[in-house]
Amino acid sequence: MNNMQNLVARADAFAAQAHGSIDQRRKYGGEPYIVHPREVRELLLKFAHGAVSAEQEAASLLHDVVEDTPVTLEQVQAEFGADVAVLVEALTDVSRPEHGNRRARKALDLAHTAAAPVAAKSVKLADLISNARSIVAHDPGFARVWLREKAAILEACVDADPGLLAEAQRVLSVSLAALTHTRGK
Predict the structure, then answer these.
(1) What residues are labeled active site?
(2) Residue partners of 2: CB distance under 8 A and separation at least 6
(3) What pLDDT, on a 0 to 100 scale, did the predictor assign at position 123?
(4) How confident is the model at residue 132 (pLDDT cuts 50, 70, 90)?
(5) Can you give the CATH number for the domain in which 143 is found?
(6) What mean pLDDT comes out for the span 26-47?
(7) Nearest to residue 29, comparing CAs of 143, 134, 141, 140?
(8) DSSP code of residue 127
(9) How many domains is the chain partitioned into structurally?
(10) What is the pLDDT of residue 181?
């Protein structure tokens, strides 16, 4: 196993352990949470037009560990290095409940994403693609709010990988159309 494969394999095992340690489950399907980061990695690899670094792959697997588990950014850096930690930090929401209502919190998170490295923005788009499928299928009421928020994320990520940007735009468009069609019935 080369260093690139080793980094990705270690990130996968670390993320599985972190999410598993708190028995985190996907909100709508109830499957183990690690299914989502693995899907984000697969989408990153499938739709990227440019090269995907091992650090991006690792970050795609680790993108929710700081936000959702007891793992700290310092632990990510110690285990995977500064390059991966920078990407994970850029993918971690910065808003907290004390920052105000949902709109205020999402504005803070949007500004954080807009300032993120391009490599992180590409992972963010893969995350959006993964989440859209689940949210639109299982919670159309919330999906309407969520999709509006994600349209702003797309604007902040126009410099991301063009393949991921195109797929995220397509998924958002199809999702909005499906919700509009559902509402009309």
Answers:
(1) 67-68
(2) none
(3) 98
(4) very high
(5) 1.10.3210.10
(6) 95
(7) 134
(8) H
(9) 1
(10) 72
3-state secondary structure of 25: strand
pTM of the model: 0.94
Report the C-alpha gap between 49 and 141 in whole angstroms: 33
- Supply the DSSP string of 102-113, one letter for each residue: HHHHHHHHHHHH
Give the per-residue pLDDT at 137. 87
Mean pLDDT over 98-107 rounds to 93
Copy the structure tokens of residue 111. 């500004």
Can you tell me the distance from the alpha carbon of 51 to that of 119, in angstroms, rounded to the nearest whole number?
10
Check the CA dihedral 67-6-45-89 and report its sign: positive
SS3 139: coil
φ, ψ for residue 149, nearest 5 deg = -65, -40
pLDDT at residue 180 in the model: 82
Domain that holds residue 114: 3-184
81: left (phi over 0), alpha (psi -120 to 50) or beta: left
What is the distance between the alpha carbons of residues 107 and 147, in angstroms, rounded to a whole number?
A: 14
pLDDT, tens only, 160-178: 999 999 999 999 999 999 8
C-alpha–C-alpha distance, residues 169 and 121, integer Å: 14
Question: CA 56: distance to chain centroid?
Answer: 12
